[in-house]
Amino acid sequence: MAGKKERVLRERMKQYVSRARIFVDRYIKDGYEGSDDLDKYVSKYEERIRPIVAGVICSRLVEKTDLKNYKRLIKGLRSLKGYMSGSSMKDVEERIMGVCGDYESMKEESYRDIQKELEASLKNKWKEQGISGPAVEVNVEGSSQWSDMVDKLEAKYNGLLDGIKREFGGKNHYEDRDSERR
Predict the structure, then answer these.
(1) CA distance 4 to 23
(2) Are 168 and 149 in contact, with CB atoms under 8 Å apart?
(3) E-assigned strands of the chain?
(4) Are 11 and 20 in contact (CB under 8 A)?
């Protein structure tokens, strides 16, 4: 009898985990009712299940964080702060914000540097042809220098972000327990 109850409980937990993961994937793709308050979703579950669902959501948010969506996913994480320890929440938030903020700063700085370089090159070419003027505008995003630089920056900062994800994201402990039993 205890074995059957345990199996039923394990199946229910798997369903909760699966639903929470699907919810996060939809939140990332479409938003959640136009809101980043994910506690509204968690509060729909019975009280004893909420920490489990919130834990899965937090883990999945960290797992799915990237250099482009991090601000929104941090807002989602913040909305679940009642389910995470304060120091853990603050640490993951600071580290993600630090890596992604550094990425954005480096990208902006590199943009300006490449823009100056391309403008100088273009002005020199025009000067050689007897053309001059202050209205030189280059398409930085269309240049091979920009593409190469973005690829290098993304590789570096995605690697740093992946380290944070491994450290804080991990699998939810209910998923781990279930896989250990197999």
Answers:
(1) 28
(2) no
(3) none
(4) no
